[in-house]
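Lab notes, practical 5.
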Amino acid sequence: MKQFIDFIPLILFFIVYKLEPRIVELAGQSFTFGGIFSATAVLILASLLVYGALFLIQRRLEKGQWITLLACLVFGGMTLTFHSETFLKWKAPVVNWLFALGFAASQFIGDRPLIQRILGHAVSLPAPLWTRLNLAWVAFFVFSGCANLFVAFTFHEFWVDFKVFGSLGMTVLFLVGQGVFLARHMHEHGTDPAAKPKD
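Output from the prediction step:
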């Protein structure tokens, strides 16, 4: 669910991006609505609203959510300031690689891999399987970042479509694969007391 919440601002971004640019009057001011720059403004506003609402409900944000929000503000803000979409094209690769770095670092920092800290309250697995699953997330984020970067700077006309639906599709496929992996090994090791997460 947390993964899909991140796509709400992206979907709104996509809708505005696809609109034919038009002049809109608001509070006596004229604005262009539609196209990359107004879509970027909507992305920033939607991210602030979505994560602001989550913060009010949960009284906190996950580290990954802070990274996503800050990246949106930084890269989106630079896109609007310098009127260049190049900055926004780097947002998805950088965020994915930061996530990959976080999952990789958790192999050496702390007593448990990051994926076990996220899912350990609900799933019991032996330590080697948590390590494999954590490394799978590292590989996924590295691949996702590289795929976004390649499409953004190679297929300019498709990069927004891929940013939204390509990333969503990759995430869904990976989560389905993770579900199959977990279901199989929960059946095999579900009664293993050594697999229980530490307090």
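Observations recorded by the TA: Residues 159-189 form the longest helix (31 residues). The beta strands are 22-26, 29-33.
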